[in-house]
Amino acid sequence: MAEIEINTRIFKKDNLDITFSISGKKLLNGILHYRLKSQNSEEIYLSEFAVNDRFITEAKYCEQSNKSVSTLFKKIIKNGYKIGKPNEK
Fold first, then answer.
1. CA–CA dist 21, 51 (Å, integer)
2. Can you tell me the distance from the alpha carbon of 20 to that of 79, in angstroms, rounded to the nearest whole number?
3. How far apart, in whole angstroms, are the C-alpha atoms of residue 25 and residue 44?
4. Spacing of C-alpha 69 from chain mean position
5. Is 44 helix (H, G, I), strand (E, B) or coil?
6. Distance (Å, rounded) from C-alpha 22 to C-alpha 6?
7. 85 vs 36, which has greater pLDDT?
8. In the prediction, which pLDDT does 64 show?
9. More reliable by pLDDT, 73 or 43
10. What's the rounded Cα separation, in Å, for the pair 31 and 58?
11. What is the rounded average pLDDT of the residues 53-65?
12. How many Å apart are CA 16 and CA 71, to the nearest integer?
């Protein structure tokens, strides 16, 4: 696993509209943890394994050919998203 640099933007894999910035690194119990800063200024620590599993870096995000629709919205469409009231036919 390649170490992610500070000030790198990362995107949540499930919803590419949610972004975080790597604001720091810390070694806890022999495991590298990243300090993530969200758009609304909240900060959390996640292990490198969690970050690599749940997030994608900006460089890899730009490499994706179809990034116009988020993964979450694709799942909604795939499951038969319908517009209108539930009782309408």
1. 12
2. 28
3. 11
4. 14
5. strand
6. 5
7. 36
8. 61
9. 43
10. 23
11. 76
12. 7
Q: Which two tokens stand for residue 36?
A: 């993530």
Query: Which residues have C-beta within 8 Å of that of residue 38, sequence separation ≥ 6?
Result: 18, 19, 20, 44
Structure tokens at 51: 């970050």
Averaged pLDDT for residues 67-78: 66
Residue that is written with structure tokens 């500070």 in the block = 6
Which residue, chain included where needed, has tokens 């300090």? 35
Which pLDDT score, from 0 to 100, does residue 78 have?
72
**Could you tell me which of 4, 20, 1, 13 has the C-alpha nearest to residue 64?**
13
- Of the candidates 9, 18, 7, the one whose C-alpha atom is nearest the C-alpha of residue 73 is 18
**Alpha carbon 79 to chain centroid, angstroms:** 22
Residues 16, 61 contacting (CB under 8 angstroms): yes
Size (the chain), residues: 89
Q: Is the pLDDT of residue 6 over 60?
A: yes
What's the alpha-carbon Rg for the chain, to the nearest Å?
17
